[in-house]
Amino acid sequence: MQLSQLKKNEIRVFAPASVANVGCGFDIFGFALHVPGDEVYLKITDNPGIKINAISGDDNRLPKDAKLNTAGVSLQAMMEFLQTDFGVEIEIHKKMPIGSGLGSSAASSVASVYALNEMLTEPLEKRQLLEFAIAGEKITSGDSIHLDNIAACLYGGFILVRSKQPVDIVRIPTPDGLHCVVLHPQIEIKTEASRKLLRKQITLEQAVIQWGNVAGTVTALFRSDFELLKRSLDDVVVVPDRAELIPKYYQIYEAAMSAGAIGCSISGSGPSVFALSPDETLARKIGQAMADVLDGLDIGSDLYISAINNDGPKVIQ
Amino acid sequence: MQLSQLKKNEIRVFAPASVANVGCGFDIFGFALHVPGDEVYLKITDNPGIKINAISGDDNRLPKDAKLNTAGVSLQAMMEFLQTDFGVEIEIHKKMPIGSGLGSSAASSVASVYALNEMLTEPLEKRQLLEFAIAGEKITSGDSIHLDNIAACLYGGFILVRSKQPVDIVRIPTPDGLHCVVLHPQIEIKTEASRKLLRKQITLEQAVIQWGNVAGTVTALFRSDFELLKRSLDDVVVVPDRAELIPKYYQIYEAAMSAGAIGCSISGSGPSVFALSPDETLARKIGQAMADVLDGLDIGSDLYISAINNDGPKVIQ
C-alpha cells in the first residue's frame, strides 16, 4: 500500500475503557464505557516503520519501543497486512489508569489500528482490525489471551465472545438507561498475576450455576429485565479467589447493592470494581457509596460513571 | 379443601414430552414437544387418598403403589398442600417411551397435578404446581434433582432453569418454524446410571467454552439467528462421556448435520437423540437420515417430529 491510498496524513482517535467478565461471564462478556479511555495521535511519514514519539499519562511505565508496546505491535501487524511502503509516528495519551482491569492496553491497541484504518480510502472491517489488536494483546497476556476487552473496545456496546478459536464476537443489546459505575482503587494488579490465581478445574455443580446465570444475564439484557439481571450477574467461579486482591472488596460490593445497584463485581482482573445501575442519578449515588468504603484507607481512587458506549472508538479533533 | 370447591369431578389431561439439556445447556435448558406425551385421567372420590386404577403403555414397569409412583407422589404433595378431604383415582396412559430421555416421569407428574388444578375453582399458579412435581421427581432422581424436564413440560416453550435453589424458571422465545426431530433408539438408559457417568470436575477452559455457547444459544433464540444457533449448540462437557451409551451416536449426529440440522445432541440423559430444524419439511428429511443410521442394527426405534410446544399441558376430551 502506498501513501496515495490514504485520505489523510494525521488523525486523533479516542478508544474507550471496557469492563470485562461482567460478573458471571468470565472471559466471554465485556462492554465499553464512554469514560475513561485513551487518545492516540497518528501521523504518516515517508520513513517505513513505527516510531512512538510520546506517551503521556503512564508515569513512564510503558515501553516506547514499538516492538514491545501493545499499540506498536498491533499497528505493525496491520501494516504488514497492508504491505505499507510508508511509516507512522504515534503519540499515546493514556487517559485511564494502567493495570486497572479496564482494558488499558486494549484501548491503546484499538485506538491505533482504528486510527490507521480511518485514514484508508478502502477501510478494513472491524473483524480484521480485531486480529491486529489480538497480536498486540499477546505480548502482555501470552497464550492466555482473552478477547473481551479488545472486542468491547473495538465494537462498542455489550459483546459476547462466543468463541476464541475460531473468533466469534456477538453483540448483545443493553437496556436503555443502563449505567455503569467504576471504582478504581489505586493499586495495581497485573493481569498475568491475577490469572495465576485462577483454578484450573471447577466443579460441574459450580459450572451449572454459572451457565444458568450466563443465560439469565443474556435473557435479562434482551428483555430489559433488571430484576432478572440482578439475580443473574453473580460469579461463583472467579470472584471468590480474586476478591482477596482488592481492598475491602466485599464491603464495596455490599455498599453498591445496598445503594440500589443491579449488580456489582470485579472489572476484568481488577482492582477496579464495577456496578450497574438502571439510571445515571442512581449511578452517582451508588458510586459515592462505593467510594466511601475506601475512605480512611491510605489508597487513592478514581470513580467513573458512564452509560454503555455503543459506538466504540471515534475520531476526535 | 372440600369437594364443593371443585368445579368438576373428572378430567383428562395431556402433558408433553420434553427435550432437556439441549446441547450446551446441561441442567439448565429444556423445551416441550407436541408429540409424544402422556395422558392422565383423574376422578374425584369420597375416599381420601390416591388410588392408581390403571397404567397403560408401560409394559408393567411402573409401580401402581401411589407412594412409589412419581405421579402419585406429586399429587400427594399437592393434596397435602390443599388439605383435601376427598380422594382421587387416576389412570396413567403412557404414550411415550419410559427411560428415553424425554422426561417421561415429568410428563406423568405434571399431567396429574395440572389435572387436579384444572378442577379447582381457584387454581394455583404454575410456580406452585412445579413444587409438587419436584416432589415426585425426587423419588427417581434423589438429590440430583434436575428441573429442566418438569419446567419445560409444565410451562411449555423453551425454558431456562436459571437456578435450582431457589427455583428460578425463565421463558426464552424460539424462532418461528423451529422444529425438533427426536430419534429414540429402543434401549433404556436410567437417568441415575447416566448421571453417574458425569465428571465431578471440569476444566475452567471447558467451562468457558460451554458458557460462551450457552450465551450464544440464548442470543440466537432471541434473534432467530439459525447460523449462530448452529455455532453455539454443541456441548463439550457431558455429551462426550454419555455418547458411548448410545449406539452409533456420532453417525446419527453426522447424518443429522449433513441433512441440514441446526444442531444435534442427546436429549436429557439419552438414549433419545434430538436435532433442530428451521422448518417441518427439512425436519422430516433430517429424521429419515438419523433413523437410517440404525438400519440393520437389531434395535427398534421411534421417530418424532414436532414444533416447539409453547402451551405445555392441556385438557383433552
Q: Please summarize the sheet with the most strands of chain A.
A: 7 strands, mixed
Main CATH class of the largest domain in chain A: Alpha Beta
Overall pLDDT score of chain A: 94
Treating each run of at least 4 consecutive H or I residues as one helix, how many helices of chain A?
10
Q: Which regions of chain A contain 5 or more consecutive residues with pLDDT less than 50?
A: none
CATH architecture of the largest domain in chain A: 2-Layer Sandwich
Q: Classify the secondary structure makeup of chain A into a structural class.
A: alpha+beta
Order of helices and strands of chain A: EEEHEHHHEEEHEHHHHEEHEE
Residues in helix, % of chain A: 25-40%
Query: Would you count the extended β strands of chain A for me?
Result: 12
* Tally of structural domains of chain A: 2
Fold-level CATH name of the largest domain in chain A: Ribosomal Protein S5, domain 2
Largest chain interface and its two residue counts? A-B, 38 and 38 residues
How would you sum up the global shape of chain A? globular
Head-to-tail CA distance between termini of chain A: 26 Å
Write up this protein.
2 copies of one chain form a homodimer. Chain A has helices at 70-82, 104-119, 126-141, 148-155, 191-196, 204-223, 226-232, 239-242, 249-258, 280-293, and strands at 10-20, 29-45, 49-56, 87-93, 158-163, 168-172, 179-185, 201-203, 263-266, 273-277, 301-307, 314-315. In chain A, a hairpin with a 6-residue loop joins strand 9 (263-266) and strand 10 (273-277). Chain A is globular and about 60 Å long. Chain A is of the alpha+beta class. The first copy, chain A, has 10 helices and 12 strands. Chain A has 2 domains: 3-172 and 310-315, 2-Layer Sandwich (Ribosomal Protein S5, domain 2), CATH 3.30.230; 179-307, 2-Layer Sandwich (Alpha-Beta Plaits). Chain A starts with 9 loop residues before the first strand and ends with a strand. In chain A, strands 1, 2, 3, 4, 5, 6 and 12 form a 7-stranded mixed sheet that branches. Chain A has a 4-stranded antiparallel sheet with strand order 9-10-7-11. In chain A, helix 2 (104-119) runs antiparallel to helix 3 (126-141) and helix 2 crosses helix 4. Chains A and B meet through strand 5, strand 6, strand 8, helix 6 and helix 7 of A and strand 5, strand 6, strand 8, helix 6 and helix 7 of B. Strand 8 (201-203) of chain A pairs antiparallel with strand 8 of chain B.
